[in-house]
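>> received
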Amino acid sequence: MLNLERLRTLDALARHGSVSGAAEGLHVTTSAVSQQMSKLEREVGQQLLAKNGRGVRLTDAGRLLADHAARILSQVELAQSDLEAQRGQVMGELRLAAFPTAARGLFPTALAALRAEHPGLRVRSRELEPETGVALVTRGDLDLAVVLDWYNKPLPLPDGLVKASLLDDPTDLALPVGHRLADRPEVDLADFVDDEWIAWDEGEFCHEWLLFTLRGKGIEPVIAHRAVEHHTQLAMVAAGLGVCVAPRLGRDPVPAGVRAVPVRPRVTRHVYAVWRADADRRPAIRAAVDALCSAGVRVS
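>> returned
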């Protein structure tokens, strides 16, 4: 008889690619992962791991069993979802993540409502960029993530996920108050061909969107400064160091010295929640989506 927790350890190893990654994902020690794998190898009578430099890799038997483990664990999750749905109670633990401005703009209201309405539900939340949130939901390390699409660039989603729209987030351009266009009622991105930009880190989804959008207008942007947090970007704008994109969700207060000007044509982010299809019937998921939708209505 295969032990479910040992299969879960094997699945984590396959997904994370290392003992340390599996240990972090399972919130256990590396020693515990190694012990579970040794026991699983004795149970199946085959070598599942082989040394690979300083790390390990799955053997052919390990990959075969890991594929079965992923399907078994998905079926277990589906069974748990069905049992929760049959019981109809919102309880247990729910692991959520959101990109920073959504965490700031939606989580305080939504999580407070969940705590008040469902005292048997324990929520754990964190800030994560959209791509990381999607990956962790897909791997089963998160139950639900709040992510985004830009109006002209969708976020790729793997198969097996369900999504629900939360709100459309209008986006302005943040200018220093002394900027030549700061008094305009609205601006076009093409007006900023000669400006320096303050943007996200290279490789992030929003950074790639900005390059894609500006280059589509014939602008090769000069990225003078990079900052992860929108409020850091706005502080740099206030200091006269450049201009930046300024979504409205989670933005207030805008610092003195900054003018947020609407963009023509309208630039929006579509904010939505994603979760695994095999968890779709969990009452806790449905309660979280409802709370997030209500929070989205309040800020939109």
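>> The radius of gyration is 23 Å.
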